[in-house]
Amino acid sequence: MSFPLILAFIAVVLAAAAGVLLVREKDPQRRARALVKMGAVVMTVFTAAAVAFIGGYAMDQPGGMTGLMMTLSWFAPMVVLAALAWFRPAGASPLLAALAVLLVAACVWFALDPATSRSLQDSNGPVVAIGVVALAFPAAVLGLKRSGPAGWLLCAIGTLPLLITVLGRSGPAASLAAASAVPLITGITYLVAARLARRDPAARNRLPASA
Predict the structure, then answer these.
(1) What are 134-181's pLDDT values in tens digits?
(2) Can you tell me whether residue 147 is helix, strand or coil?
(3) How far is 140 from 125, CA to CA, in rounded Å?
(4) Per the UniProt record, which residue ranges are transmembrane (predicted)?
């Protein structure tokens, strides 16, 4: 099974599981906590699969130390951002939002100059798709603390780069679509969880701590 199909399968499983949970669980707070945890688990599986696929491709071509350094150039910052989202969510939230804006700005630039975009991505791989993966995982970790902001952030990461790339015809849309599907559905899941949590004002601030 190809990587895009694997990611599509993960997205479908998440959507189906969320639907079953919403139907069977009656308590809004328990629904919210379960949705957040489920979204975080699926995003972790998605990220592990993406790291294995992208890292394996880099180690094959160009391979060696160059491939390793290319992988570490985005993997290490992703891990640091995820740790920051867990231990310092107040500081991580605006930082991740700013990085998402930079990613969208890069997509706009690529759309305005598609020739440069294709040349860059032919040389370095699907950099926009990698950027989506590198930002989506820390955003998912942030969702364990702040499901609402993380949900909006994941929805933006999962839609805007793909939309701009497709409209501008500035890069490989298939790989970007595969990288965007799970973050988008996870973002929607977090937003649903945040809405459920707000039904009980007394529990509004308990969801991030208990998730």
Answers:
(1) 999 999 999 999 999 999 999 999 999 999 999 988 877 888 888 898
(2) helix
(3) 24
(4) 6-23, 35-59, 65-87, 94-112, 124-144, 151-168, 174-197
For residues 171 and 127, give the distance between their C-alpha atoms in angstroms, rounded to a whole number: 9
User: Quick check: helix, strand or coil at residue 139?
Assistant: helix
Q: Enter the tokens of residue 37.
A: 């945890």
183: DSSP letter: H
* Cβ-based neighbours of 165, under 8 Å, separated by 6 or more: 107, 110, 111, 128, 171, 173, 176
The residues spanned by each domain of the chain are 3-210
Tokens of 144: 């364990």
CB-CB neighbours of 90 under 10 Å: 8
Q: DSSP state, 171? A: S
- How many CB atoms within 10 Å of residue 208? 20
3 state DSSP class of 119? helix
* Per-residue confidence (pLDDT) for residue 26, from 0 to 100: 64
The sign of the CA dihedral 200, 32, 91, 139 is negative
Peptide bond into 183 cis (omega under 30): no
Q: What is the DSSP string of 37-97?
A: HHHHHHHHHHHHHHHHHHHHHHIIIIIHHHHHHHHHHHHHHHHHHHHHHHH-HHHHHHHHH
What is the pTM for the complete model shown?
0.83
